[in-house]
Amino acid sequence: MRPITGPLPVVSLPEDRPRLRYLAKVRWLLLAVAVALSAIGLATIHSASSELPVDYLPRQAVWVAIGLVAFLVAFAIDYHKLVKFSLAFYLGSLVLLVAVLLFGQEVGGARSWLGFGRWRLQPSELAKVATVLLLARYLAAVNRRVLGLKQVGVASLIAGAPMVLVALSPDLGSAAMFVPMLGGMLLLAGVRWRVLVAGLLIAVVVGFVSWNVVLLDYQKDRVRTFLSPGSDPLGAGYQLRQSKIAVGSGQITGRGYGQGTQSQLRFLPARHTDFVFAVLAEEWGFLGAVATLGLFSAYVLSGARVAARARDRTGILLVVGLLSVFTVHVLYNTAMVVGLVPITGIPLPFLSYGGSFTLANFFATGLILGVDFRRYVNR
Amino acid sequence: MATHVREHRDNLVQRLPLLQLVFVAAVVLIGGSYWFVQVVHGDYYRELAENNRLRNLPIKAPRGLIFDRHHRRLVENTPSYNLLIDRARAADLAASLEFAGGVLERPAAELAELVERPAPSAPFQPVLVAEDLNLAQVARFSAAALEHPEFEIDVRHLRLYRHGPFTAHTLGYLGEVTEAELARPGSPYVAGDLVGRRGIEQRYDLTLRGEDGEQVVTVDSRGRLREQSGRRPARPGQRLDLTLDLELQQEAAVYFDRRVGATVVLDPDSGELLAVVSAPSYNPNLFARRLARDEWRELLDAPHDPLQNRALQNTYPPGSIFKIVVAVAALSEGVARPSDTAFCSGATTIYNRRFRCWRRGGHGRVNLREAIKESCDVYFYQLGQRLGIARIAEYARRFGLGAPTGVDIAGEKAGLVPDPDWSLRVRGERWYSGETISVAIGQGPLLVTPLQVASLMATVVNGGRRVTPRLVRGERNDPGAADLDPAAVAVVREALIAVVAERATGAAAQVDGLTVGGKTGTAQVVRQKTWVDSATLPYEQRDHAWFASFASDGRSRLVVVVFVEHGGKGSAAAAPLAKKLYETYYRPATGRQPA
Question: What pTM value is reported for the model?
Answer without folding.
Answer: 0.60
